[in-house]
Structure formats: structure tokens, C-alpha cells
Amino acid sequence: MLTLVIGGSASGKSEYAEAHVCTLPGSRIYLATMEPWDGECRARIARHRAARTHRNFTTIERYRDLEHLPLPPDSNVLLECLSNLLANERYGTPSRQADQVLESLIHLARQCRHLTVVTNEVFSGGTDYEGDTLAYLHQLAWLNRQLARRAERVVEVVCSLPNVLKGEGP
Length: 170
Known about the structure:
With 170 residues, the protein is α/β, with parallel strands linked by helices. 39% of the residues lie in helices and 24% in strands. The chain has a 7-stranded mixed beta sheet, with helices on both faces. Helix 2 (39-51) links the parallel strand 2 and strand 3 (57-61). The longest helix has 20 residues, at 131-150. The chain is globular and about 45 Å long.
């Protein structure tokens, strides 16, 4: 099963996704995609780890090449977040595009019991982008649409309030 959780920056989407995964039977894996490039990234990673310590997640830090990551079949995987994963793949060596990222996510979903993907809502920030930034945003928007199409459940989180766009449940 696949759940897509989408929202703007600091919308509460991560907290919602974590709580959602905690309602599912089976083991919990937190698949972290943020690379610790600098002190700010490391501090953010530490805050996220501390916030979920009581939720019994096994954390796997994996920044790219998810199709080579073996997962237990009874696991409930929370991928945090698609925006980071796409950037890692797009700007890494070798460079990979959105269609390849989508294939790796489909591979993950086939391995585990439930995959919950957290992603950022794009194009509502009121800012005009150009060049490669715009190309990245278009790829992220495409990935969001592809995952929403395949997902059994899609939830948009705004101001920590979940709005179920597809599927059932709170």
C-alpha cells in the first residue's frame, strides 16, 4: 500500500506521516534522505531523530539508489522526503531523473507492507523560478502527480490539519 503526504514547508506533514505510520501493524522504518552537508543539516537531522525517539522507528539513512535497498516484507516505511531524494539523485553522480526515482519508489513499495512518502507542495510560494531550479520543481511536481495517481491514499497537510484527498481515514 502507498500513502502520499504532501504539504508546504513546516505544515506539519512530517508529524502527520509519523503518526500515520505508528497506527500500522508491523515494524517501522524511517528512511531518511537528507544528506548532512553542514551544521544546519546535522542540527535538523538531530531534531527529527529526537522528535521520533519514542515512536520505535529503525532509521536508515539512504540518500539515493533506493532500488538497491532491501526491506523486510512486514515493514512500514516512512520516506522523508521526496524533495531531498530527487535533489540527491538529480545532482548526484551519476545524475538521475524523476522517472528513475519513480521506479525506485515503486520498487520500495513492492518490498514492504506500506510505504508512506512525504513530499513538498510546489508552485504555491508566489516566487518565479528559472533555469535548473524550475526544471527541478517541474520534476518534483511530476513525481508528486505520478505517486498520487498510484497511491491508495493522498493526504494534504495545511497548518497541521490533514485533508484526505484520496482514500479513507483521518
